[in-house]
UniProtKB/TrEMBL annotation, chain A:
Keywords in alphabetical order: Cell cycle, Cell division
GO cellular component: nucleus
Keyword Ribosomal protein found: no
The organism's place on the tree of life at top rank: Eukaryota
Region: Disordered, residue numbers: 165-197
Upper classification of the organism: Eukaryota, Metazoa, Chordata, Craniata, Vertebrata
Keyword Cell division annotated: yes
InterPro entries: E2F-SERTA_domain_protein, SERTA_dom
Pfam families: SERTA
GO terms, biological process: cell division
Identification of the protein by name: Cell division cycle-associated protein 4 isoform X2
Domain SERTA residue range list: 31-78
TrEMBL record, chain B:
Family according to the record: Belongs to the phosphatase 2A regulatory subunit B family.
UniProt xrefs under PANTHER family: PROTEIN PHOSPHATASE PP2A REGULATORY SUBUNIT B
InterPro entries assigned to the protein according to its UniProt record, in alphabetical order: PP2A_PR55 (IPR000009), PP2A_PR55_CS (IPR018067), WD40/YVTN_repeat-like_dom_sf (IPR015943), WD40_repeat_dom_sf (IPR036322), WD40_rpt (IPR001680)
Keywords: Repeat, WD repeat
Subunit structure, as described in the record: PP2A consists of a common heterodimeric core enzyme, composed of a 36 kDa catalytic subunit (subunit C) and a 65 kDa constant regulatory subunit (PR65 or subunit A), that associates with a variety of regulatory subunits.
Classification via SMART domains: WD40
Listed SUPFAM superfamilies: WD40 repeat-like
Record's GO cellular component terms: protein phosphatase type 2A complex
Descriptive protein name: Serine/threonine-protein phosphatase 2A 55 kDa regulatory subunit B
GO MF entry, a single one: protein phosphatase regulator activity
Length: 288, 430
């Protein structure tokens, strides 16, 4: 897991470089790999934000700012365009991305003194965190297609609550939003991919909340054919595992994990009886 | 101060701890929406050596889980903050807030009961009028003490985002409530409207880069309040200046040290708590790694900085990964403003003496605290050889976090919430 870090082999077949610049190059490439890893991690966190029932706005903002910061630095370095190119080719080895990111904790000026990656005790960790860590290692994070699409959702974290606030003001009674969550995701992805994803800033700017827009066209479907579907399992599994009692009733339908039992919602007399009935029905349907 | 454990109580995960103005009562709120109030035993004249212990006084369900049908989201019943009102009569009043709603609760005692009604029996049944032949005056008879909590006001529907702070004003008539983007001013008697005094919501939500993390009213000046942000800044506002206090009167920010800049700089600078000193001259802010004391007259830097757990600076990446970097620690002053306290991981909490500059790390755990025994100071080993009794950084349990602590307003009694256990420590009597 992350505590151990992944040792990368330095291939000896490269051209001769002096020792100093070799070390410098190593540190630089190590730094950029780790920065990329941090970027991936942040985007996943934002993705999870989106899946949580009520995202913590402060946390979302801080993560989004971190993503922006990385993106700005990468643009400055000139390495952001590589990410955009990779968007079209979508074929990078995942293992390089999942590297211990200790170096990122320090400033660039400081010496990179070799510290062992900390062994944070995960025993008795909150359930959702353990799942997140395991899946971070197993899911193909390097897929920049999904990365950029995730970026499109950054704005959605807090847009969602804001939109509802507006709706409430207008006293619009909203019908069941069953399935609209899924539409939102797909549409956001489409939108993110149709714009040229040069900067996260642009992706932020293109976001809109959608309800029931037309589905993706065939060109985009090709583009997404490489998307690792285990990603969606990650979403649904994490939706199911994340603070189970806090799930809304419609999230149960998103949850595909067969081992997931319906959340033990504390029953209160007023608004919960319907939810409990729905749970009960879902249990029967899912057969868990 | 050499604290000894006085009592420990287990419950649901505690989410807030607060002494009342006299220190006689201690309120805790938990994740299940319950409020438990402890009361200090009256000191017995005979047993000079025993200080009053805190026993459960009242327990009530303050908030219930709700469902927001428009957003299809659950509203957590977790109590985010409790604030007491100063006592004005025999009853006690407190404000409790979850993410969306604030309630004013009245806690009153009943130790007498009227007996001898004319028109009804002792068990409440109406008496047959024809059988009443005499007239008597009901008499008040003592009964077992009953503590009742009743909701007197419900302040709802004023916050789109999650409430993170409430603070009672020194005029004892108004209070403020702050969520991620707005601060509202309420009158305690009026529940159907509030004034919005701060609004940092951008026109375009995608431009949002900063949120409000905490707010507090000045202890003496009823027109002054402060609010802290996720970017590590504090704004002091004067309500006399304008109806909408978007423009601050004072802006407190410490310039960043460029040599320690990293991708996590902003996150760890985010202020999780702000508290005025009792004197009103200083305020204290807690960010992820440190506690800073600010002089209200000096905006460009804090006057004191205390490192809480600097050894975590090299672990920020893993703490970001497991989300611990977003933990919101609180901090508190002692009654005389000479010491400050805040929590850390592994059930450690730290106390700093502002005068002597000494600090101490203590642990709140059942294993290490026998009642009446002294707490042993703890030390975290940051590198190299670990001495006996030291604990290495890698062995710290990041699930055992002390986020909420409170200090008695007058005495050296502290309350420490360690997940679902409440520890109360008090100073040894010499």
């Amino acid at each position: 897991m992350f505590s151990k870090g992944t040792k990368r082999k330095f291939s000896d077949g490269d051209e001769e470089i002096s020792d100093e610049s070799l070390v410098g190059a190593r540190v630089a490439s190590s730094y950029s790999l780790q920065r990329q890893s941090l970027l991936d991690m942040s985007l996943i966190k934002l993705q999870l934000c989106h899946m949580l029932v009520e995202p913590n706005l402060c946390r979302s903002v801080l993560i989004a700012n971190t993503v922006r910061q990385i993106q700005e630095e990468m643009t400055h370095d000139g390495s952001w365009h590589m990410v955009a190119e990779a968007f079209c080719s979508a074929g990078q080895s995942p293992s390089e991305r999942l590297v211990a990111t200790e170096v990122l904790c320090r400033s660039r000026e400081q010496d990179a003194e070799p510290k062992l990656f900390s062994v944070i005790s995960y025993e008795g960790c909150r359930e959702e965190e353990v799942v997140a860590d395991e899946t971070l290692c197993s899911v193909s994070v390097s897929d920049t297609v999904s990365n950029v699409c995730l970026a499109g959702r950054i704005g959605q974290c807090w847009e969602k609550s804001e939109l509802s606030g507006v709706e409430r003001d207008e006293e619009a009674l909203e019908d069941s939003r069953l399935g609209s969550g899924e539409d939102e995701e797909i549409d956001t992805k489409d939108r993110a991919s149709t714009e040229s994803p040069k900067t996260i800033g642009q992706v932020f700017g293109t976001f809109e909340i959608k309800n029931g827009s037309p589905g993706p066209d065939s060109a985009l479907e090709e583009l997404f054919s490489d998307v690792d579907t285990s990603y969606y399992d990650l979403d649904t599994m994490l939706t199911g595992m994340q603070s189970a009692p806090k799930m809304g009733p419609y999230d149960i339908l998103d949850s595909l994990a067969p081992s997931h039992s319906s959340p033990s919602i504390v029953s209160t007399p007023n608004c919960r009886s319907d939810l409990n009935e729905l749970d009960h029905i879902m249990e029967i349907i899912v057969g868990s | 101060m050499k604290p000894r454990p006085v009592c420990v109580s287990a419950s649901d995960i505690i989410s807030t701890v607060e002494f009342n103005y006299s220190g006689e009562l201690l309120a805790t709120g938990d994740k299940g929406g319950r409020v438990v109030i402890f009361q200090r035993e009256q000191e017995s004249k005979n047993r000079l050596l025993s200080r009053g212990e805190y026993n459960v006084y009242s327990t009530f369900q303050s908030h219930e889980p709700e469902f927001d049908y428009l957003k299809s989201l659950e509203i957590e019943e977790k109590i985010n903050k409790i604030r007491w009102l100063p006592q004005q009569n025999a009853a006690h009043f407190l404000l409790s807030a979850n993410d969306k709603t604030i309630k004013l609760w009245k806690i009153s005692e009943r130790d007498k009961r009227a007996e001898g009604y004319n028109l009804k029996d002792e068990d409440g049944r109406l008496r047959d009028p024809f059988r009443i032949t005499t007239l008597r005056v009901p008499v008040l008879m003592p009964m077992d003490l009953m503590v009742e909590a009743s909701p007197r006001r419900i302040f709802a529907n004023a916050h789109t985002y999650h409430i993170n702070s409430i603070s009672v004003n020194s005029d004892y008539e108004t209070y403020i409530s702050a969520d991620d983007l707005r601060i509202n001013l309420w009158h305690l008697e009026i529940t159907d409207r509030s004034f919005n005094i701060v609004d940092i919501k951008p026109a375009n939500m995608e431009e949002l880069t900063e949120v409000i993390t905490a707010a507090e009213c000045h202890p003496h000046q009823c027109n002054v309040f402060v609010y802290s942000s996720s970017k590590g800044t504090i704004r002091l506002c004067d309500m006399r200046a304008a109806a909408l206090c978007d423009r601050h009167s004072k802006f407190f920010e410490e310039p960043e040290d460029p040599s320690s800049r990293s991708f996590f700089s902003e996150i760890i600078s985010s202020i999780s708590d702000v508290k005025f000193s009792h004197s009103g001259r200083y305020m204290m802010t807690r960010d992820y790694l440190s506690v800073k004391v600010w002089d209200l007259n000096m905006e460009n830097r804090p006057v004191e900085t205390y490192q809480v757990h600097e050894y975590l600076r090299s672990k920020l990446c893993s703490l970001y990964e497991n989300d611990c970097i977003f933990d919101k620690f609180e901090c508190c002053w002692n009654g005389s403003d000479s010491a400050i306290m805040t929590g850390s991981y592994n059930n450690f909490f730290r106390m700093f003496d502002r005068n002597t500059r000494r600090d101490i790390t203590l642990e709140a755990s059942r294993e290490n605290s026998k009642p009446r025994a002294m707490l042993k100071p703890r030390k975290v080993c940051t590198g190299g050889k670990r001495k006996k009794d030291e604990i290495s950084v890698d062995s710290l349990d990041f699930n055992k976090k002390i986020l909420h602590t409170a200090w008695h307003p007058k005495e050296n009694v502290i309350a420490v919430a360690a997940t679902n256990n409440l520890y109360i420590f008090q100073d040894k009597i010499n």
